[in-house]
Amino acid sequence: MASIPIQHTPYPGGIAVFNFESNRSNPKAFYRSIPLYTQRIEGRHWQALLGIPLMEKSGTKSITIQDFSTRTLSVEIKVPQVKKPAKQNIKLKGKNKKYVNPNAAHMDRIIKERDILGKARVFYSDKILSNMSFSRPVSGVTTSPFGIRRLYNGQPRRPHTGIDYAGDTGTPIKAPADGTVILAGNYFFNGNAIFLDHGQGLISVYIHMDKRIAKQGQRVKKGETIGTIGQTGRATGPHLHWGVYLNRTVVNPNLLLGETR
What we know:
Elements: E1 15-21, E2 28-31, E3 34-35, E4 37-42, E5 45-51, E6 59-66, E7 70-77, E8 87-90, H1 104-121, E9 142-144, E10 149-152, E11 155-156, E12 163-166, E13 172-174, E14 179-187, E15 191-197, E16 202-212, E17 219-220, E18 225-229, E19 239-246, E20 249-251
């Protein structure tokens, strides 16, 4: 299937695009020892995609291409200068305070789940399940954009690693592209969650669901309902948190929709 070119966005949370030519049917690309997503655009024209960490600093990133020989490609990463980064203070009350200061029993669960969730985020398969043509999983209004600095009851946390869409409980969540369910379960912070593998280290994440419909190991098609919007886990209202990981790095999901903001 023909692949959709990805725009070069070499900044934190973006995707650095390395364009190269190859006569091979399956050239490989690596960042250090991490395999990268590669796609043929047309003829001998290929792209290798490198996710840039949200906390990355300005500098040079280099990758290696392996086809008939090994070669190195480099790109400059630029960090935008922002005088006052936008912040969002989320207030959790009553029983939801446990998500700010978990007790010993909660920490036991969090530690056990950390390994499970971590393995899903770094999952890699050689299969090409998508052509990079993604659509939004829901049509709700964005309530928390990607990368915003977050505080819970005034306590700083890491920047937001996805996009939050508002919606009524029970609203269907659609797979934005073909994929395979590599994880489906209920977790302390995430609530009901599903992880989809789109191939070559491209993983999409759906959390705070009311119901999980797609099952572990199930192959899903673009537009197929995988679950419904809910308010499970650390959530102050019904919404979907949609996240995307590329080569073990969280990136802005909008970039897969052709949006560079």
